[in-house]
Amino acid sequence: MTSKTRRSLTGVAGGVVLAVTAAVATPVAAVAAQDGHAATRAVLDRYQAQAGPGAAVHAGDATGSWTLSSGTARIGQNRPITATEHFRIGSQTKTFTAVVVLQLVEEGRVALDSPIGQYLPGVVTGNYDGAVITVRQLLQHTSGMVRDIRDAAPNPDGSYSLAELVRSAMDEPAQFAPGTGLGYSNVAYLVLGLLVERLTGRPVRDAITERVITPLGLTGTSFPAPGTRALADPYLPGYVGGRLGPFSFWTDGTTNTELTFWSTAGAMASTMVDLATFYRALLDGRVLSAAALAEMRRTIAPDHSYGLGLSRVNLSCGGEAWGHNGALPTGHYSITLTTDDGRYAALVTNGNVVTSRPVSIEVLDTALCEGAA
Predict the structure, then answer these.
(1) What is the mean pLDDT of residues 194-215?
(2) Helix, strand, coil tally for the chain in percent (to 5)
(3) Residue 16: pLDDT band by 50, 70, 90 thresholds?
(4) 317 and 131 in contact (C-beta within 8 Å)?
(5) How many CA atoms lie within 13 A of 250 on its CB side?
(6) CB-CB contact of 334 with 87 (8 Å)
(7) CA atoms within 13 A on the CB side of 309
(8) Is 70 an annotated catalytic residue?
(9) Which of 120-124, 240-244, 344-348 has the lowest mean pLDDT?
(10) Residues 91, 263, 334, 360: which is the catalytic one?
């Protein structure tokens, strides 16, 4: 496998290491909906040994699907992760946000290479110039905006408004001048959330639901309302902590994050089945026009791997796959990849361990390449 295949995509947030000791979970043997997939089993087991208490992959093509699970879905129990359990998808939210922006481009309501200040006057200010930063640069992480929010003021109920999140970031130093580099920015996608609200006249969670989630029948996918932290049943608990030799240190982080803080950069919940459906529909041309999808897939230097809310991974068996990954301090890490010929693979782990992420790409590469055999 090439170094490009093993490259780790950027997620929303790193794991939070807590000194809480828990018993090492007894591994659950990997289970499949059908026999075989020995190569994927082996890589998944190796991944789970570095990742959370459990990990699972759901893969397939137009002819059928299969699911493998390693470790356990819940500490203290001996149960596999299923493909229909809900979890926080982190930065996979960015692809949903980008899709809505591209739909608005198709409708002639926004132009990719126009400055964001044309649509959000007086919003991108301070250390940033809304007359220079374009919509495309926000989508492609070339705007130079700071990566994360640092000091936004919450509402009295503890939630955050998009306007306040963006306002709080305007005095942060830029990563670089617009268009001169590639620097991952959650703040850029919060600005895009404001753009969606301004152009649609709808709260962004409603816009994404009405334009993407409902039309595709993604019944396991949701954008949380302010103050909503719980996941719908059945759900995969998230754990924060880590590993030290043969010992694991985990505590439940499923509801420890106010999701409005991440909003259009990473707040959504979904399932492996729904994520595979979403990305397949996107690549099949059922969500955007061919021209808009081509814009999403137009990547840039230095490694030509990131488009507009969509990442490319070169496969060891030849060809490429497209998708995104995501992580949150809830303890969930996930990644979904699809190919133009209809193969797909979605992975989730219930422990956000940054050092394990390169192997997550290897799991999906193996699953997709098994499907091509």
Answers:
(1) 98
(2) 30, 15, 50
(3) very low
(4) no
(5) 28
(6) yes
(7) 31
(8) no
(9) 240-244
(10) 91
